[in-house]
Structures are given as structure tokens and as C-alpha cells.
Design a protein that fits this description.
This protein has about 300 residues and is mainly α. It has helices at about 1-30, 40-50, 65-75, 80, 115-125, 140-150, 225-240, 240-245, 255-265, 265-275, 295-310, and strands at about 65, 160, 280, 285. The chain folds into three domains: about 1-50, no CATH class; about 65-170, Cytochrome c-like domain (Cytochrome Bc1 Complex, Chain D, domain 2); about 220-310, Orthogonal Bundle (Cytochrome Bc1 Complex, Chain D, domain 2). It contains eleven helices and four strands. It is globular. The structure holds heme C (2 copies). One heme C binds near residues 285 and 289. One heme C binds near residues 242, 265 and 302.
Length: about 300
């Protein structure tokens, strides 16, 4: 892979000649802070700079209605957060909990706890659905945000959330936070009886902590086909979060006994359950693990991968 990149880069320079070099010189010549790496380009920074401020600064153009949000939420969020935001099993609740903040066990939700609606938009766009973060469009994020606000009785069912009216949303607990006004203590560092820095030597007492095996270039590398690699990647991205360690009642990959019982249903039935989702005696298996961008074939491949690992 690395060689390929190097070759490709050389070819680029060949094709673009001196002009190409001049164009790449900008970042080639500008080392980053402390001479490490290089200064990030504007496009690279833009990819990370997606935060939204409480006053709405940073919101993208767009809008979305409670009505549109309902379907999107039911398809992409309800499997974990519950149809009404009540939370399936032990997944986080997104609604309710008003008036519980002073209880011994406060129920902190978007409606009972969060001071700003911007966090809801930002968090959803950045991190949800759990197994397919950043797969939602801005319009979808507006609609789902509107719907979660509706689930918390903050807006009405005919509400349309837009970039323009966003900052007018008032969260019930907006006054529940205050700035910590306790003064700094300004303790002075003790600079008496210090050791002479030159007399301090760092020594490692643990021998052989750095594994060197992987440096053996002749070591055999396991060959995997493209299909196997793809199935593994789907599994890692969308299924491992629950199935690696049996989270939320999911059968654990690698535990032969847990899978043998399920296999009696037949391979086809198991794949169907993984694609369409279902509620079993152990818990809720969300459709496609909550990642609706997966094709049916992807899910089947991931199931086969799990079964193979559990033999
Ligand atoms: C596969 C399960 C799953 C799905 C599907 C899912 N979430 Fe989540 N969600 C989680 C988990 C787990 C957390 C807690 C993550 C953490 O604390 O790191 C969470 C946290 C959240 C939170 C923060 C809750 C809080 O009080 O801290 C919000 C808001 C949220 N999700 C919204 C959504 C929305 C909107 C969707 C649909 C677009 C969605 N989630 C889909 C599992 C899921
Ligand atoms: C949010 C957690 C979660 C995620 C993510 C998840 N699963 Fe599951 N899965 C479960 C739970 C819980 C069950 C067990 C439900 C029961 O039988 O009670 C389950 C069961 C299954 C089963 C057994 C079906 C049967 O009929 O016995 C298969 C196969 C499966 N999941 C495949 C997948 C695949 C493939 C993915 C990724 C694309 C995935 N799961 C992602 C929670 C999850």
C-alpha cells in the first residue's frame, strides 16, 4: 500500500512537472508547530470544524419538520432510544425526566437537562446513529432534531425547525446552569529543597515491554480475501459494538454455544432477523444493527463472518 502511494505520488509530480511541485510546495515547505507534520489545509480544518454554538453560529443552511422527523426517527433512532424517547432497555432516554434533577436518581434527558438545543443538533449530526455516525444529511438532522424537541414538548407537531428560528428555541433547563464563580486559589509551587535536575535519571525497570515480534519481516501474514475483509469491516463498524461482548443481550461472537442454539432456526431466518431487526427474549436487535446504509448483502456477509468466528 505504502509503495503504491509513493509511486502514485511520483507519477503525479512527473505529470504536473514543475507546476505540480510548486502547488504542493505550499504544504511541503510549511512544517507544523514544533517542526512536526505540516500545517493543516483549510479543507482539512473545515472537515473538523462542525461545532454549533448555543446562539446558532455554525448551523448549516436547511430546515426540517417534526412531521418529516417522525419517520426518520422511527427508522434510525427508535430501535435504541425508544419510539417516544423513553429508551429501549438500558439505552439512553432522550425524553422525559422533567422535575427529577433534584432527585437521588435524576433522569437527565434532552428535555430535562440540556440547556441548549444546539447540542442536540451538533451531537446527532456528529455521533448518531451510534453505528453510522455522520451518515445523516443536514436536512435530516434538522428534522430529527425538531422531532426530539417535539418528544420533549418543547415544540408543537406542526413545527418546522430552520437555521433562522433555531436560536429562538428555549430549553426548559436553560437557567439550570451557572458559571462557576469560585475564585482561583493561586497556590504557589513549592520551590524549596528541589533536586538538582542533572542528578535525575529516568530508567526503565521493566524489561522487554516493547513487543518486537511484529518487526520480523519474514513472519507469515494471514491472507484474507477481499470479501472476508469487507465482511469483517462491516462487522467491526456496525455490529461489534454489541456483539463483541454481548452488550444489551446480544449473542457474543466467538461463543459457540450461544450461536448453536440460534442456528437451529436455520441460516435464512437468522439473516432475516439481522436485516429486519426483531425483539427476542434477550433484547432488541435493531434492523441492520442500526446502520441503514448497509445493503442486505452486507448484513448477510457480517452474519456469516460472525458465524465463522463462532464455530
Ligand atoms: C444502536 C443504538 C443507537 C441508535 C440507533 C441511536 N443511538 Fe443515540 N445513543 C446511543 C448510545 C449508546 C448513546 C450514548 C453514547 C455515549 O454516551 O457515548 C447515545 C446517545 C445519544 C444522545 C445523547 C443522550 C444524552 O443524554 O447524553 C442523543 C441526543 C442521541 N443519542 C440521539 C440519537 C438520534 C437522534 C438517533 C437517530 C438518528 C440515535 N441517537 C440513534 C445509541 C444509539
Ligand atoms: C444495538 C446492539 C446491536 C447491534 C449494533 C447489532 N446487534 Fe445483532 N443482536 C442484538 C441483540 C440484543 C440480539 C439478540 C436478540 C434476542 O434474540 O433476544 C441480536 C441478535 C443477532 C443475531 C441472531 C439472530 C437470531 O435470529 O437469533 C444476528 C445474526 C445478529 N444479531 C446480527 C447482527 C449483525 C450482522 C449486526 C451488524 C450489522 C448486528 N447484529 C448489530 C443487538 C445488536
Amino acid at each position: 500500500m505504502y509503495n503504491w502511494v509513493k509511486k502514485y505520488f511520483n507519477v503525479l509530480i512527473l505529470v504536473f512537472g514543475v507546476q505540480g511541485l510548486a502547488a504542493t510546495a505550499a504544504f511541503a515547505e510549511e512544517p507544523g508547530h514544533y517542526d512536526l507534520g505540516r500545517i493543516a489545509t483549510e479543507e482539512e480544518i473545515a472537515g473538523w470544524d462542525i461545532d454549533i454554538r448555543p446562539d446558532g453560529l455554525g448551523l448549516p443552511e436547511g430546515s426540517g419538520s417534526v412531521m418529516d422527523g417522525e419517520g426518520l426517527y422511527e427508522a434510525q433512532c427508535a430501535s435504541c432510544h425508544g419510539l417516544f424517547g423513553e429508551g429501549e432497555g438500558r439505552w439512553p432516554k432522550l425524553a422525559g425526566g422533567q422535575g427529577t434533577l433534584t432527585d437521588n436518581r435524576p433522569v437527565k434527558t434532552v428535555g430535562s437537562y440540556w440547556p441548549y438545543a444546539s447540542t442536540l443538533f451538533d451531537y446527532t449530526r456528529r455521533a448518531m446513529p451510534f453505528t453510522a455516525p455522520q451518515s445523516l444529511t443536514n436536512e435530516e438532522t434538522y428534522a430529527i432534531t425538531a422531532y426530539v424537541l417535539y418528544l420533549n414538548d418543547i415544540v408543537d407537531d406542526d413545527f418546522v425547525l430552520t437555521k433562522e428560528n433555531f436560536s429562538e428555541i428555549e430549553m426548559p433547563n436553560k437557567d439550570g446552569f451557572f458559571e462557576d464563580d469560585r475564585p482561583d486559589v493561586n497556590n504557589k509551587a513549592c520551590m524549596k529543597n528541589c533536586k538538582d535536575p542533572d542528578s535525575i535519571k529516568v530508567t526503565s525497570t521493566i524489561q522487554g515491554v516493547t513487543p518486537l515480534d511484529h518487526l520480523d519481516e519474514d513472519a507469515e501474514v494471514e491472507q484474507v480475501s477481499e470479501e472476508e475483509a469487507h465482511a469483517k469491516a462491516v462487522y467491526e463498524q456496525s455490529c461489534a459494538v454489541c456483539h463483541d461482548h454481548g452488550v444489551a443481550g446480544a449473542p457474543t461472537t466467538g461463543e459457540t454455544a450461544e450461536w448453536e442454539a440460534r442456528l437451529s432456526k436455520g441460516h435464512e431466518a437468522i439473516v432475516k432477523n439481522a436485516i429486519e431487526g426483531y425483539t427476542g427474549s434477550e433484547g432488541v436487535m435493531p434492523p441492520k444493527g442500526g446502520n441503514m446504509s448497509l445493503s442486505d448483502e452486507d448484513v448477510e456477509a457480517a452474519v456469516d463472518y460472525m458465524l465463522e468466528m463462532s464455530k
